[in-house]
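New to this. Please check both lines:
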Amino acid sequence: MAGTVADSFEKGADLVHEMAGIRLGESTVERTSEDAGQRLAEAVQAGRTFGAKVVWPWHKDYQGRRCAYVEMDATGVRQQGEGGSSAEGRMAYVGVVCNPCPEWPWPEEKPLPMQARYLAGLYPLVELGPLLRRPGRWAWTRPIVGWG
């Protein structure tokens, strides 16, 4: 959504015009972006995981144990205050539960493209781990120790 990738909702409106040839006002891009964000937040709060349920054939580590990979990264996000004033930035975190194909698969394993579920947002870091459990559960074939 253009309102989330641009520096301002005005630039988001310009981006929509450039990409789709549709002229929207800054306030329309703002309302639409905030409404979509609210619906997404409610879905995450309700525990909804997006995408189809898929059981992944988890690859084995070098000791023959099936394992999942959990990765996280962060980036600074500039914020805009009331009336376009400056505001303190925030950290956006990106987390992924994935099943990358090992460099040297076990003889009985077929190399598959990497399977992954991503989660990103302006969550406090302590909230990201529990949120990653939900998409990860969809792919487990059996419980993994520490992941209920």
